[in-house]
């Protein structure tokens, strides 16, 4: 992969994509590892939904242009985030409730980005 700078200082010849998963958007490149909300079992291959694909000077952003684009990733690992604790209290009603939540995350490695 060739990386260079144009006179304007912009990087070209580097393909990246913006993908949507778990209600969030991430900017990804091939070979990058990313921690996202759980998408599959470790060792499986998943397809992420591209929102934007940039290939050097070409930008694909409309639904027609993105119909053939795809981003493939392999699930490398799975883990859990830190515990988030919450507490409800209602004065004068003797109501107290305490609960917690730990989100499960997947570490994925981007294997390929194709324009289609």
Q: What does this protein look like?
A:
The chain is mainly beta and 116 residues long. The protein has one domain. Helices cover 3% and strands 62% of the residues. The protein has 1 helix and 11 strands; from the N terminus they run E-E-E-E-E-E-E-H-E-E-E-E. Strands 3, 4, 5, 6, 7, 8 and 11 form a 7-stranded antiparallel β-sheet that branches. The protein has a two-stranded antiparallel ribbon with strand order 1-2. A hairpin with a 2-residue loop joins strand 3 and strand 4 (24-29). The longest helix has 4 residues, at 63-66. It is elongated and about 65 Å long. The two termini are 19 Å apart. The model has no long low-confidence stretch (mean pLDDT 88).
Key terms:
116 residues, mainly beta, two-stranded antiparallel sheet, 1 helix
Low-confidence stretches: none
Bin the helical content.
under 10%
- How many discrete structural domains? 1
CA-CA gap between termini: 19 Å
Q: What is the element string, with H for helices and E for strands?
A: EEEEEEEHEEEE
Helix tally? 1
- Most strands sheet: 7 strands, antiparallel
Residue share in β-strands: over 45%
Derived from helix and strand composition plus strand pairing, the structural class reads mainly beta
In round numbers, the mean pLDDT is 88
Overall form? elongated
Number of strands: 11
What would you report as the Rg, rounded to the nearest angstrom?
20 Å
